[in-house]
Design a protein that fits this description.
The structure is a homotetramer. By secondary structure, chain A is of the alpha+beta class. The first copy, chain A, has one domain: Hotdog Thioesterase (Thiol Ester Dehydrase, Chain A). Chain A has 2 helices and 6 strands; from the N terminus they run βαβββββα. In chain A, strands 1, 2, 3, 4, 5 and 6 form a 6-stranded antiparallel sheet that branches. In chain A, strand 4 and strand 5 form a beta hairpin. Chain A is globular and about 45 Å long. The two termini of chain A are about 15 Å apart. Chains in contact: A-B, A-C, A-D, B-C, B-D, C-D. Chains B and C meet through helix 1 of B and helix 1 of C. Strand 2 of chain A pairs antiparallel with strand 2 of chain B, so a sheet runs across the interface.
Chain lengths: ~140, ~140, ~140, ~140
């Protein structure tokens, strides 16, 4: 899977605060980059609002393979796409590259649509499903 | 796999800053909790120093299954153990529970012993291996 | 002003993630420690709830003098007290010390009671004022 | 003091992780934004390297007045300038504005040139002083 598999990408400006005592971007911060790409993706598709109460899914799983360290001053590109749509869950695939094009990480997350009031999973809204399916030809 | 499988645990005091706009501990922060448990584990076994330059492994993979949200004011316990020892890589398994004993997350990370100067993986030092094997009867 | 001026203190376990590329706790993280002491203080006095919506003041100012770096593995004590009570604003004074008793930082913050719905400052609630005044003999 | 007083500015893309349970960018994160502007400023003037070991000053003080909350999705501009040059210390002044031009914060930090090896303040290097003075006409 290369960058061509992705229609969407988002760039991250690495912050000094992102770097840890070993001089590289800390591993937990990769998940912040992934999360931001997710937020940006949903905003791009008109599926996110800035109102946190409207975010109606929860993160069920996240995993990342760290391929290359990120240095201070780098501009990182995070490619993201919805890679699976289930009944109430869906997955994102990610690919992170550095300013020089090298592969930094590949990652995946699984989200579940959730009704916070009733505290249980709910089906992916049909309108949401159609917008994502239209955007992702491979789904 | 339950808590009994772990000899080691470390507690985390949840910070206000750990919580995001949805009112729960942010997903990336779970990886900070796991990292801290790893650091605490190695310190407990005398394998860590406070000198970042002496930490001689890199993180190759991390994954987490989020089972229950963490609320503000909670005290979280992170159970950690070395679950596999390869030639140059080793894995940690984790289990996080809340103050009420409920399961919060299960997670895993893979580390690779690394020579930063030569920029290549190196075998796990024999002394390190012996200390960990002595501590973890299941290895 | 020494530790004797404070009735309240809260301890912080320094996390690996708190440390930056220079090997010391990052300056922005000091403000997270101060914030946590503030939250802990209010909880101690029964003035905080875990419901973020109930927090009815905003931070107007924060300042910190950095006296000594914090190292990994240290346990930091943050002393906090309400040092001034105005009509709608109040200030906190802080003092941070290390495990060896050395002074790490002195700091101050100013908060303003705020009605989020009407988006304007409101007087400090009388019940709140009485509880704090009873706790802080110097006010 | 308005934006005209500043030659330099740096933009920040607000991250979802920057926002806290109250739905605004957390106060400690403002100091991360200020720090990043400082790093960007020094890089712009050729005074920073990506090697953390070469950063030869410590932060002595930081203060911030919070004028307006920052919302998710905003692009923040941080104006920064060296506002005072002493013998071994120097100060930065900052001004943060939102995408709509409103004032978000004004801030100040004091740094001290420091010899980490000898653990004592040292005079600002003359070459450094000349570069900054040439850049900041008001100094």
């Amino acid at each position: 899977m290369t960058e061509e598999a992705f229609r969407f990408s988002s760039t991250v400006k690495v912050r000094w605060r992102d770097v840890d005592a070993l001089g590289h971007v800390n591993n937990a911060v990769y998940f912040t980059y992934l999360e931001q790409a997710r937020v940006d993706y949903l905003r791009e598709l008109g599926l996110a609002t800035d109102d946190p109460q409207k975010v109606s899914f929860i993160l069920a799983q996240a995993s990342c393979q760290f391929k290359s360290p990120i240095k201070l001053g780098e501009r990182v590109t995070v490619y993201a796409r919805v890679s699976e749509l289930g009944n109430s869950s869906f997955s994102f695939d990610y690919r992170m590259t550095g300013g020089d094009g090298r592969l930094i990480a590949v990652a995946r997350s699984v989200q579940v649509c959730y009704d916070y009031a009733r505290q249980k999973p709910v089906p992916i809204p049909e309108a949401w499903r159609q917008i994502v399916t239209a955007y992702e030809p491979g789904l």
